[in-house]
Amino acid sequence: MSDRIVASYLIETCYPLEQAAAAMAGEQSSGTFRTMPGETPELMARYGARVDAIEPLGEVEQPSLPYARGPKQGGSPRPQQARVTISWSFENTGASLATLWSTTLGNLFELHHFSGLKLLSLQLPDAFAAAYPGPQFAVEGTRQVTGVHGRPLVGTIIKPSVGLTPDATAELVDRMVGAGLDFIKDDELMGDPPHSPFAERFEKVMTVIDRHADRTGRKAMYAANISGDLDAMRRQLDMMERRGGTCAMLVLNSVGLSGVIEIRKHSRVVLHGHRAGWGVYDRSPILGMSYLAYQKFWRLAGVDHLHVNGLQNKFCEPDESVLASARECLTPMFAEKPCTVMPVFSSAQSAVQAGDTFRQLGSDDLIFCAGGGIIGHPDGAEAGVRSIHEAFDAARQGIPAEVYAEDHPALKAALASFG
Amino acid sequence: MSDRIVASYLIETCYPLEQAAAAMAGEQSSGTFRTMPGETPELMARYGARVDAIEPLGEVEQPSLPYARGPKQGGSPRPQQARVTISWSFENTGASLATLWSTTLGNLFELHHFSGLKLLSLQLPDAFAAAYPGPQFAVEGTRQVTGVHGRPLVGTIIKPSVGLTPDATAELVDRMVGAGLDFIKDDELMGDPPHSPFAERFEKVMTVIDRHADRTGRKAMYAANISGDLDAMRRQLDMMERRGGTCAMLVLNSVGLSGVIEIRKHSRVVLHGHRAGWGVYDRSPILGMSYLAYQKFWRLAGVDHLHVNGLQNKFCEPDESVLASARECLTPMFAEKPCTVMPVFSSAQSAVQAGDTFRQLGSDDLIFCAGGGIIGHPDGAEAGVRSIHEAFDAARQGIPAEVYAEDHPALKAALASFG
């Protein structure tokens, strides 16, 4: 592993590519367009960002984003796209995720040279692994806490997202855990509102979960959404520990990096990372940051689960992007400290997508969340859960779902209903 | 002020506009495409997001973003744009900025209905003002701490951003404060790296600042970048208080909401909000969030200064956008709690833009940062600072800069050199 921070970007510019890449490197190390006193050749050699590679990708018809400007002379009339790799000395940032964020993202998106700029990938020196804790539970810890081995965890999201009282929420959880689910989570819209105060909701849900655990010997995991101000989050974590809760959900983009890092320090429960707002970063192919870069910040910060959308989802993301994200969650970040996390599939999922999810990911280290695909099963929620297990069983045994469905009626009904 | 949260969006869709707006409201309140058990008409009436207005803006040639899908039937072959206003009961979120973030941004960007979606504006019920502290110092406090009244604060950013030792940084600060500056800040790339440890840099810079304060009776404000993990930020704040520091800089997008809120609770110094990474939100006209919405989160969280770019900047932002941002910083958020903050102008600024900045903003409650425009002044840094003051003086007196420059040689040289 290099001792440099290495980032690659997709860019679009009317500047000659070398000049555009040099502007990126300049802005993100010396920080101005004009040579400043003190900006000696020695300083630039040691601390200047370095352009390691430029791979031209061809011209486009017109600028993807407005307001970019070309050079006064020597520019191209039509923008060119390219993949540019830039690296920095670790001395520039130290092992700080906040400074890494400013360095690899920062002002780059606003430079007038670019009608498009997106961070595609990020490689970090081992010093980051030494400085940050990474996941406390990760895949194995999640399996131990839930008692689920050798198969994916199957879960659901409490819906309607808002409006249920704590009692109504507990009733719904009763029904869903009763149907055999391993995992239940709050919607990201449900925090600590007047109509469902966190403490009351949490207590009532845990009472239900404990009752089922007494019966089954396995305790369903409840990812309760603590995302909020730090005092409240710490109080809620304490409550969880006292009450035997096993998982806290964090909306990464609203809590933010330093908040997530702080919670990881205080937490003795699994941290479920939700990416609500993620579309801001990745919805445009030519602006923002890819999930391959994004998830590295949060894995180092210490979450155990990360959302990756689902195959054939209700959103815009193509399946290959979902799979690339999920595979990356299970790919070690550092040799000594893999920081692998459990990918969470959700969004219009049912038994229909389960087999492909397993086959394409090549692993059952995942959480598979379905809502309508469980509660909307024609034979009820229990059959809905069973249909998903059966779809994974079929895939694991290499049997097509339709064949396996012949003597598995829950799966058969699910394929007919949701296929 | 309504007791509802009101947000307006620019959308682009091939769905009939009513259907598209309903999908937004549904996703951000009930949260699924399918009616769920428990989603009663009573619950929906009370907690469902409400579409308050739809203003069609016409068709566009082709989708701005890929992967959107139209309805199976009844859709438009070409996408339409519209301005949509949606509101939520305060009961949905309670006074939580994190839940507000999930509610007004959240999954919206990923909905398959949209080939473009941007949050344009946000109105909040007074309960948010009651729950969050807002700025501790704001404009008046910044003036008291710096002793600068009746004119803008003039400042600079330490450059080169990376690579200077603490001694070299202090030398540069000596020169710049000696030249008459009110305000100095770290670059957002400079945190607590091995080559310039925060504690050593801060101590050396403060020694220089104190020496000048003894001479002039006014203490220049040093916005030292503490952005990082919370333990370190709290340690650095303590150091500041002990040592007589007056300002901490926070990179909002890397520290995040809960971190900034937490720091505001512990801080007794001015908080300088830097928006590095802002381009992710606003670089596209059809994706993300406008500054008019964005800055409300941070003002409530409690920063005292907010960056707004500068007129004729080196980046992509048009002047009207810069001015709208700056005006919004000075516009009260709530009748009882204005939360107004000082806008910070920077990026390729010099005496050339000062007059227009004052005239267009209609206020001198601002911080005006220049680098090359000061240090690159042909008669030296002191003349650079003087030229900016002279440009503001001229504007305040309603005299064209070129006329005023006739008997103000520093301004004259600046206009000739940077104009």
Automatic annotation (TrEMBL), chains A, B:
<feature type="region of interest" description="Disordered">
    <location>
        <begin position="61"/>
        <end position="81"/>
    </location>
</feature>
<feature type="domain" description="Ribulose bisphosphate carboxylase large subunit ferrodoxin-like N-terminal">
    <location>
        <begin position="4"/>
        <end position="127"/>
    </location>
</feature>
<protein>
    <submittedName>
        <fullName>Ribulose bisphosphate carboxylaseoxygenase large subunit</fullName>
    </submittedName>
</protein>
<comment type="similarity">
    <text>Belongs to the RuBisCO large chain family.</text>
</comment>
<dbReference type="Pfam" id="PF02788">
    <property type="entry name" value="RuBisCO_large_N"/>
</dbReference>
<keyword id="KW-0479">Metal-binding</keyword>
<dbReference type="InterPro" id="IPR036376">
    <property type="entry name" value="RuBisCO_lsu_C_sf"/>
</dbReference>
<dbReference type="InterPro" id="IPR000685">
    <property type="entry name" value="RuBisCO_lsu_C"/>
</dbReference>
<dbReference type="InterPro" id="IPR020878">
    <property type="entry name" value="RuBisCo_large_chain_AS"/>
</dbReference>
<feature type="domain" description="Ribulose bisphosphate carboxylase large subunit C-terminal">
    <location>
        <begin position="139"/>
        <end position="418"/>
    </location>
</feature>
<dbReference type="Pfam" id="PF00016">
    <property type="entry name" value="RuBisCO_large"/>
</dbReference>
<dbReference type="InterPro" id="IPR036422">
    <property type="entry name" value="RuBisCO_lsu_N_sf"/>
</dbReference>
<dbReference type="InterPro" id="IPR017443">
    <property type="entry name" value="RuBisCO_lsu_fd_N"/>
</dbReference>
<dbReference type="GO" id="GO:0015977">
    <property type="term" value="P:carbon fixation"/>
</dbReference>
<dbReference type="GO" id="GO:0000287">
    <property type="term" value="F:magnesium ion binding"/>
</dbReference>
<dbReference type="GO" id="GO:0016984">
    <property type="term" value="F:ribulose-bisphosphate carboxylase activity"/>
</dbReference>
<keyword id="KW-0460">Magnesium</keyword>
<dbReference type="InterPro" id="IPR033966">
    <property type="entry name" value="RuBisCO"/>
</dbReference>
